[in-house]
Amino acid sequence: MDQRINMFDRDTGMDLYGEFTRTVNRKVTCAVSLTERDLTIQRLTSAPVGRNKVVLSLKDCVGCRAYREDDNADPAAYLSAYFYPLKRRWMSSGVSRQRVEQCFRLAALQDPRANLEEAEKWARAVRKRSARQQYLRDGLLMCESSGPRRMMLLVNPQSGKGQALTLYNNHIQRILNEAGVPHTLVITERQNHARELAREADLSQWDALVIMSGDGLLFEVINGLLERPDWEEAIRTPLGILPGGSGNALAASIHHYSGASAVSSEELLLSCGFLLCKGLVSRMDLVSIHLSSGPRIFSFLSLAWGFVADVDIESEKYRHAGAARFTVGTLVRLASLRVYKGRLAYLPVTEDQDNEKGSGNSVTLHCTNQVSPQDPAQLPRRPSRDSPCQNTFHNSCHSNNSLKVRRTESTPPRSAAKTLSGPPDNLLVPLDQPLPSDWVVVQEEDFVLMLAMYQSHLAEDLHAAPASTPNDGAIHLFYVRAGISRGALLRLFLAMEKGTHLATNCQHLVHAKVRALRLEPYAPKGTITVDGEVVEYGPLQAEVHRGLARLITG
Ligand code: ADP
Ligand code: MG
Q1: Is residue 98 over pLDDT 60?
Q2: Helices and strands (H, E) in the chain, number of each type
């Protein structure tokens, strides 16, 4: 509560009005007014060209600062405010965030200190009101920072086209500075470097761990955090992602959750940079996956077998093509389409569980690890057609598919978790034991693909699980039965770009919302990927842990 009072401290919430000159052209005077929602700039000197009035929403503001130039003879102070509004793209129907900087010169008084104080009063008010706009939009009224936010920013110089560091220098450094976010840049040196850092870091030093890479680096960080003896606390560290790789699925998902229309490449980067500066944190589901040997791993994005896993790995060689590598890989794999044999079973989400709203959904980066009692309605609601029925297939996208479901014999559930760090897997029994009775075993044994998703996007242009939200406690399980033609499979992937694949009436595609699954491939060799990384091939099972991690979603 003290922090809430702190938020209003020294900002009365009353409208501010001032007449300042432009920094770049001192002949131009502007009337500047600040309300709770907007900053309005009205040009007083008549303008021969251009617009006379600009209204900028404080929701789009990342920061504002007051300063003096190193000129002792000049008593003026300066005010700069940084906005990233959504603007229509040139020659396109889409919108994306574009940077707008507003700079003013305040020189009403002869005393330089008094001018600076006035500029600081404005800067403080702009910052506090933009923070308030953010929280109000999300149904929250939370504190502003009681101290600076410290971010560890891990950059993988090898990810994607090898440009992550350049992208940081050209786009991210500036926006973080404008937002006043102190960060320490850590350049990873090798595979598993980020994992070791996450496992060993003194987390009291950091308010957030942010990665700039593809999804693979976040996979390392999450698993490093869950390997710690203090995993329960460690996994509550807010995590952020900036797209710098070739597979930027989580970044594309975060952008989608913000309600903005699809963008790619540098526009996606700027959007994620903006959301990162806004600093709103949501809970994020993690899925623990038991492979046949070795300790379990934690996944935040996807588990794939068959077509999708093969494309993911085979497309490594098209890495220089960036995000387009998956499109190329899909076309190549389609030419040699094959069937994958195995057994698939799952524990469906029940209607009760599905209706259960996530409690304590959002936190702010500013108050690290504090859970808000409110449930912000910031994330898109799931369409009702996805509401599952208990123990049936859900949203099977066709009418005449016989739902061949075999019930399993009843066994008392026994946890499969060995003594490991991380939460216990209460829904799983050991892999060599029969499944509990409430599991559903898929009758088919011939598949083209199995894909389990827990975020909306599988790649920048693959909206694979439109109904998925970061904290819905569900694994969105898709499988494609054998017998699908190449053309039909291609149509599915093309539809996936817009997220309309479930509406294509494909006879072979099945979707179910599940809490746990087991997969037993029959072939001795093959590929399974978790979050786009190859893992040990063989039987596996997985269970979702609702809201285990924290994700900066803006
Ligand atoms: P991409 O989407 O381009 O594949 P990822 O973030 O998934 O990018 O990274 C790919 C792999 O690179 C990950 O497995 C990660 O462990 C590894 N990696 C991280 N840092 C380095 C480095 N400095 N050199 C080589 N590989 C690295
Ligand atoms: Mg999810």
Answers
A1: yes
A2: 13, 26
The answer to whether 267 and 94 are in contact (CB under 8 A) is no
Task: Give me the CATH code for the 291-357+421-544 domain, please.
Answer: 2.60.200.40
Give the 3-state secondary structure of residue 285.
strand
Print burial letters for 35-45: b (CB count within 10 Å at least 16), e (below 16).
Answer: eebbbbbebee
pLDDT in tens, 23-65: 988 889 999 999 999 999 999 976 666 668 999 999 999 999 9
Element housing 265 (H / E): helix 265-278
Respond yes or no: is residue 425 known to be catalytic.
no
Q: Are 415 and 428 in contact (CB under 8 A)?
A: yes
| Average pLDDT taken over every residue of the chain | 85
Residues of the chain with CATH 2.30.29.30: 4-133
Cα-to-centroid distance, 109 and ligand 1 (Å): 55
Query: Can you read off the two tokens belonging to residue 463?
Result: 């909206």
Integer Cα distance of 316 and 216 in angstroms:
13
CATH node for 142-286: 3.40.50.10330
**Minimum-distance ligand to the CA of 321?**
1
CATH of span 4-133? 2.30.29.30
Task: Tell me the sheet residues that pair with 31.
Answer: 19, 42
CATH code 2.60.200.40 region(s) in the chain? 291-357+421-544
> CA-to-CA distance for 460 and 462, rounded, in angstroms?
6
410 has pLDDT over 90: no
For position 317, what pLDDT does the model report? 81
* Minimal-distance CA residue to ligand 1 atom 11: 216
pLDDT exceeds cutoff 80 at 422: yes
Return d(Cα 423, Cα 415) in angstroms, integer. Answer: 11
Residue 85 burial class via C-beta count within 10 angstroms: exposed 0-12, middle 13-18, buried 19 and up = middle
Question: How far, in Å, CA of 513 to CA of 282, rounded?
Answer: 21
Q: Residue 486 pLDDT more than 70?
A: yes
Task: Give me the helix-helix angle, 249-257 and 265-278, nearest 10°.
Answer: 60
What one-character-per-residue DSSP string does 380-445 give?
PPPPGGGPPPTTS--S-S-SS----EEEPPP--------S-SS---TT---TTSPPPTT-EEES--
Kindly report which listed range (60-69, 98-107, 375-384) carries the lowest average pLDDT score: 375-384
β 95-97/86-88 pair status = antiparallel
249-257 helix and 215-226 helix, angle to the nearest 10 degrees: 90
pLDDT tens-digit readout, 427-474: 999 999 999 999 999 999 999 999 999 999 999 989 999 999 999 999
Name the closest ligand to CA 545: 2
Please say whether the beta carbons of 428 and 418 come within 8 A: no
Q: Which of 60, 138, 215, 531 is catalytic?
A: 215
In the chain, CATH 3.40.50.10330 covers 142-286
pLDDT for position 149 = 66
- Give residues (CB < 6 A) around ligand 1: 156-160, 188-191, 193, 213-217, 220, 245-247, 532-533
CA distance linking residue 40 with residue 331, whole number of Å: 51
* Cα of 209 from ligand 1 centre, angstroms: 17
